[in-house]
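> @MW can you paste both from yesterday?
MW: sure, first one:
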Amino acid sequence: MRYQITGKQIDIGEALQTHVKTELGEAVAKYAERPTSATVVFSKSASEYSCETVVSLSTGLTAQATGKAHEIYAAFDASREKMEKQLRRYKRRLKDHHKDRTQPVELFGASSYILASEAEGVESEPDSLQPIIVAEMETQVPSLSVGEAVMQMELAGAPVLVFRNEAKSGLNVVYRRDDGNIGWIDP
């Protein structure tokens, strides 16, 4: 597994990097067969450390967890525990419901845009209805079943997921509703 361990405006020592590789490697190997990469980012806000962990699996799914604590090792341990819990649930679901998948998830390229938000306090008429594009990126759209899309959305902690429906070959959307249920848009 390829590791990328960084700190936002803090130095990450060798001891912490070794700890992360050992502990995260054991946790991921326990529940995921072929992890491909792990990104761990440490940051500090006031007296609290934060650790964001993202693990990409060979199946195309991504698990993400965040931990916070007053010590940097404790922040990582909280993130690792959340990651382990997610991967355990993912593995259980795969055993129960998704035995049929033999091929990795197919990914399709797509453009992703970040649009400028309205300036606060300014209530003037816009010059045009075209939004201002702040950033343009390349993103991946996975080809999944609806159940796998819901599982991927929950693993990533995302409020919405766009995917290509394997059954119908069309673009679909799953999202978390305000009432806590999952919505599915199938055009």
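MW: second:
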Amino acid sequence: MRIGFTLPQFGELAHHPQHAARFAREAEALGADSLWVGDRLLAPVDPKVGYAGTDVIPPEFRSALDPFALLATAAAATRRVQLGTNVINAPWYAPALLARSFTSIDLLSEGRLLVGLGTGWSPEEYETTGIPMAERGNRLDECLDVLTAWWTRNPVEYRGAHWTVPASHIDLKPAARPHPPLYLGAFAPAALARVARRADGWLPIAPVGRKYAGTDPVAALAQGLAGLRETVEREGRDPARFDAILRVNPDADASVGDIAATIVRAEREAGVGHCFVELSYLAKDVDQALDLARRVLHRAHDR
């Protein structure tokens, strides 16, 4: 199992950006295989939609560093780990700007970027970015079209319902060929169908902690991944080449043992070979985050 961790981006960790490079460098030295960012813009006072099926927004989302700045920092500070996004909310951005940022980070890291995209869930964030939330699925499809063209063609031209790229010379291409691996986060049926049609892999989530007692996220993961690979095959694609990277999402009550057990079960029971652990709810500073990473790696690899 390849195991990664989130970069210090949210909550208390976001208030110490001067330590982000040190975290990336030391996490790599500990044996981490990947480092990850997400994409939160704000935490509404009275949210119309809460987080993860609740009616509230975690206080950690009140502080958020820019994902692209963190990835660039980690790219400069490391040599081996992969650098991933889980997820960038693609409809918020003009696809050409996303393509330029992703290409730059992939080149800075010499081909270590994993691109994970999604659509988000917060109406207030869509309101703030000026993008109609009802258009998010269509805009994600167009974004995938533009990214593919930007990375694999020259000149590049695209004309869609929402975005346009006039015929242009784009000489700078990613180091990863034909382009960085592209993953999608999805749970709704239409979104999962898009994953099967268009993505190199899926980004599922396994919650861990006391409030999830009585549920079995690993069993649900195994069932969901098996069904998704069947859909991939029906789309005429090779399910053996379809990947999944699991986000292990522990709450503040989760222990290192709980996290390690979830990682091990995901590999043994669902066949997942790569996961990463969200540290925002467990660590208040970079030293604590690094200690958690060290203990998770030790426990998971010892099982």
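> thanks! The chain has one domain: 2-302.
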